[in-house]
Amino acid sequence: MSDIVLVSKNDAEFTISLEAASISPVLKNMLSSAFMEGHQRRVELKEIDPHVLEKVADYLEYRYKYIDATEDEDLPEFEVPTEMSLELLLVADYLNI
Amino acid sequence: MFKIQIRSPGGLDNKSNTTFDASWKILKDAIKLIFDGRVSELSFQTLFHAVYCITLRRQGEKLYEELHHTIERRLQDITRTHLHSESESYLRDILSIWYNHCESLRLISNVTMYLDKVYCKENRKPPIYHMGLDLFRDIILKSSKDQLQDLMIQNINAARSKASQVDFDSLRSLVEMMETITDEDSTYYATEFEPFLLHETQEYYRSHAKYYSGDLTAYPQEVESLLCGERRLDAKFLNSDVSIKIAKVVEEIMISENIHIVAMEVVPEILRTEQYSSLRLLFGQCQIQNDRKKLWKQCSQYIVGEGLAIAEDLNLKKKTQVAVKWMQEMIALKEKYEVVFKSQEDDDLNGLQAVNEALSVCFNQNSRKTAENLAIYLDSMLRAPSTSEESFKKHIDDCIAVFKLLKDKDFFEKLYQQQMSKRLLQQRSSLKFEKMFVNRMREEVGAVFAQKPDGMFRDIALSQTNNTRFHQAYHVPVEYEMNVLTPTCWPFQQMSNEEDVVLPSALEALKLDFENHYMKTYSGRVLKWAYHLGSMDIGIQFSKSYHIITMPVFAAIILMLFEDYVELTAQEIGDLTHIEEKELIRNLLTIAVAPKTRLLKKQPMNKKILPSDKFRLNYSFSAPSTKVKVLAVLSKQDSDSQGVMRTNNTLHDVAMERQGCTEAAVVRLMKGASKMYCDMLFEETRKILCHRFDVTPDLFQASLERLVEREYLQRDSEESSFYHYLP
């Protein structure tokens, strides 16, 4: 398992696994194609605030962890602070999550 | 109250001040680098973000058009620079352009994901990737279409004729390419290439079939090896469903299009040379029902030819031998082809039907002759002394099979009854086998057939019981057997004046005794004696040896006169016995002229019988065995005329019966329908009677006339072909 780095506004870095990042088709394409990001293993998302990107990174890991879970299983809730919801929505749209 | 503050996001397009042109420039330069394969210098994120910003600013349409335009120009450039029609590696050139294009498109469409997601979906435009494929189709494939297809088919045909090595990988890749690219609602492959491929395949095999010069019987093998080769070839670059289509085309061209040659020439040749495995192949290749029918028809016609070629072997002396040999050959023919056709791929019924149709034609070429031969064949089977039950059952099956194909079934029945009655009275056959045949016929053709035979069996059985009783009740000096026959069941005509015949006294007494005995049991019945059907055994001591002689009753009556007389003229014999003249002469010929059974000496010694000829017992008679059988001879012309007369009688009987049957059928039909058109009535009547005989229009018309005359039917006053039933 290899890790990749997401970089936010103000150059905060978040490390997640490639598999978790691949939940987002956009990140997946970005990292698997011949583009620069593919070999640098570093994605700069400088338009996104650090606290939002952190939440996104958490969410991706959370999704990846339970990727095989069926619907009946009891999953822990993923907490989304209400005040952050709009910002998250925007990023979700961007990353196509 | 606790108030939740939702931060309003600033948006991700924080460089909102950038113009479309600036963003587009970034993308345009990037696309150029992508096309040139320098993608690793680019940042996905930057490009993705640019597309994102443009799309968000509702400039998606403009971006889409620019992309379209850029890709289009790029392909046009490539056509000019990379695609040379004289290039030897034309096919591979196209492939390499295709692969590059696909890779570039994939990268571009990755970057433009957001555009696809937001703009294309909403505006129902094809995603960028598909748009790029469509452009490839419109620019590269349309311009190269003819050359591409020609080259491909050249390669394929070269592979078909094994002329040269063919690059199947390229072909396969090209086919895959065409299957990837859409065209209208289907793929480019399906709309453009497959019709072309199938058409060219037709042409190829059409000319192949036209110039086929091999052995006719090898034609199915040739087709099979073509199919096999084609399958191998197709597997290398086509999908299996296309292979099936192509195989169909090959069969269609090689078999269906040439079905006339195949049926008219190949089939007879195969049958003639008995190469039945080829026939099997051919039927496997012939998928179309109608064509198969044609093949079967030809098979059938071939058998007809073979069947008609089986002539009666007139070198054989006896009519029986001729008939038996002919039947055996016909049955052998039938069995031969049944076995051959049973092993064909087709369902068995078609093959058997073909054999049956063929034989039906052969048999009905001269239906009466066949009926006669069949009857004789059966007769000789039943007379054969030592037939095993197993083989007899087989013969019965053969006979029934032939019978079923026969048109003149009633004619056979008549002959069969005549012969059967003789066998029964002369005890020449085993009752068990006789009954076996009748029972099988009852199963196969219905109870009507068995009616008269059953009557005969009954009479024979009853007579045996009667004889035993008679022997117990009376003192009978000789062995004596009587058969009392019900006239309706037995096919004999009563001789007119047998009543007058004077019996020797011993016999006369016996006869009276039997009559008395019979009347006791069955009062009210009339017994009529049919001497001509009987026979007698007489033991005589000649000068050299003692012989037991079996002879017709009339001959015996004549012979017994010489117990009392030494010499008699023919005239005197007639006066003493009252035997009818013709019968008298016949019996005198039998015992005085026929070389092996000359029991009487005739004066003068010649072959004619005149009233004045004198007869006396021939004591010098001798024969190799103690038992001698006297066969009633017929002078040559006599026998011929008698034979003809018998046949004519039979024919007459049959004709009368047919008339009756037809009339009955018509009346039955009209009773139900009450009115009907003549044609319809004819068809229906025919249908009803087809299991017995074929109703001819003449017979039908004659029957109608008679029914009208007898006022069963009435012709419509206005329409002469319309009939009413008169109740």
TrEMBL record, chain A:
Which GO MF terms are attached to this record? Answer: ubiquitin-protein transferase activity
Q: Enumerate the SMART domains for this protein.
A: Skp1 (SM00512)
- Which InterPro entries does the UniProt record give? ELC1 (IPR039948), SKP1-like (IPR001232), SKP1/BTB/POZ_sf (IPR011333), Skp1_comp_POZ (IPR016073)
What is any one of the record's Gene Ontology cellular component terms?
Answer: Cul3-RING ubiquitin ligase complex
* Protein's cellular compartments: Nucleus
**Pfam families, sorted:** Skp1_POZ
Protein origin, superkingdom: Eukaryota
Tell me the keywords, alphabetical order: Nucleus
Keyword Nucleus among record annotations: yes
Q: Which residues form the SKP1 component POZ domain?
A: 4-63
Might you name a Gene Ontology BP term for this protein? ubiquitin-dependent protein catabolic process
Describe the family membership recorded for this protein in Swiss-Prot or TrEMBL: Belongs to the SKP1 family.
Q: What is this protein called?
A: Elongin-C
Species lineage, top-down? Eukaryota, Fungi, Dikarya, Ascomycota, Saccharomycotina
TrEMBL record, chain B:
State the Gene Ontology terms under molecular function.
ubiquitin protein ligase binding
- Pinpoint the Cullin family profile domain residues: 369-592
The record's SUPFAM superfamilies line, in alphabetical order, gives: Cullin homology domain (SSF75632), Cullin repeat-like (SSF74788), Winged helix' DNA-binding domain (SSF46785)
**Highest taxon of source:** Eukaryota
Any GO BP = ubiquitin-dependent protein catabolic process
State the PANTHER family in the record: CULLIN
The family classification in the record reads: Belongs to the cullin family.
Q: What is this protein called?
A: LADA_0C04698g1_1
